[in-house]
Amino acid sequence: MKPGQAAATPGIQSPPQSPSLLQRAYVAVVGGDFDEPDDPTRARLLDAAFDQFCRMGIQRSSMDEVARRAGLSRVTIYRKFDTKDALVEQVILREFRRYFLRFLADIGEADTAEERVVFGFVSSLRSILGNPLIGGLIETEPTLLAGSIGADDGRMLAAVRQFLAQQLRKEQSAGNIAADLDTELTAEMMVRFSNSFLTVPSQLVDVHDDEQLAAIARQYLVPMLNPPKP
Q1: Is the CB of residue 171 less than 8 Å from the CB of residue 209?
Q2: 14-44 burial: b if 16+ Cβ within 10 Å, else e
Q3: DSSP 110
């Protein structure tokens, strides 16, 4: 046992962590369960909430304001969402599902594994930073976003790593990349590389310049697909 580490109580196990919203979005997309519910009132409220949160921020927005923006009553919004937290969760979950789907659509336009890495890198940054809600939360309410997606203990990165590792394994199965490539570690390094541009402002890289991002991906990420032999 490491110094300062509390001993586990015999017979008692720590409760399992609930999946983050990003993990849930990943599972939904991978499992093909990403269709929007056939509930026009609920969709109308989610659209209104997205617009309200983008304009005013989540913390400064109320359920009543969302209902008014949707043109619906207070009773209706509480019938669909018990609490503001439940509404926020569903809005962010929907955006994360769209993020994964956009990623798949963008890499689907590439012809090679190398170009799919480039397209994926550019798509990831564009989808996050270009999203008025998620990108806005990164800049103005990072603590709230971290709490919503479980980012404080690495679960956010783990979810994206799982998603990317799955794409790399598909490339392996198709014979497009080396069969002995460590897909989990490669995905981990790629995700951490990308995440640095989301969390730490750069004075050298314009994260809104797709051509510059593509050039960076070709220089630094693509070589990860063919690591030197030990």
Answers
A1: no
A2: eeeeeebbbbbbbebbeeeeeeeeeeeebeb
A3: -
Q: What are phi and psi of 74, to 5 degrees?
A: -60, -35
Name the pLDDT band for 9 (thresholds 50, 70, 90): very low
3-state helix, strand, coil in the chain (%, to 5): 65, 0, 35
d(C-alpha 15, C-alpha 173), whole Å: 36
Higher per-residue confidence, 112 vs 8: 112
Q: Is 8 left (phi over 0), alpha (psi -120 to 50) or beta?
A: beta
Inter-axis angle of helices 84-107 and 40-56, nearest 10: 90
In contact, 128 and 157? CB cutoff 8 Å: no
Per residue, what are the HEC states of 171-185?
HHHCCCCCCCCCHHH
Residue with tokens 């209706």: 76
Q: Cβ neighbours of residue 226 under 8 Å, at least 6 residues apart? A: 177, 178
- Cβ count near 96 (within 10 Å): 27
Q: Is 65 left (phi over 0), alpha (psi -120 to 50) or beta?
A: alpha
- Note if the pTM is more than 0.85: no
